[in-house]
Design brief:
Distance between the termini: 27 Å
Largest sheet: 3 strands, antiparallel
Structural class: alpha+beta
Shape: flat
Strand content: 25-35%
Order of helices and strands: EHEE
Number of strands: 3
Radius of gyration: 14 Å
Number of helices: 1
Length: about 70
């Protein structure tokens, strides 16, 4: 069954999920975690995106963004 159209109105919150292919790790260690979070911060600043919440696990990450 196809997914319905996504809501993309100004001010809408989005739940973004990033997953490793075949459940592979997206971060290996604490240094990788720090780099990932730092890059997300830079991208958010450049794109004027607000990150309200995030969770970073070994093989996936969740972000609540506007």
């Amino acid at each position: 069954m196809p997914r319905g159209a996504r809501l993309d109105a100004p001010g809408t919150l989005h739940h973004v999920i990033v997953r490793g292919i075949e459940k592979r790790k997206i971060v290996k260690d604490n240094q990788d975690r720090r780099h990932f979070v730092s890059r997300m911060g830079r991208v958010a600043t450049k794109t004027e995106t607000s990150i309200y919440a995030w969770a970073l696990m070994k093989n996936h990450a969740h972000f609540l963004v506007r």
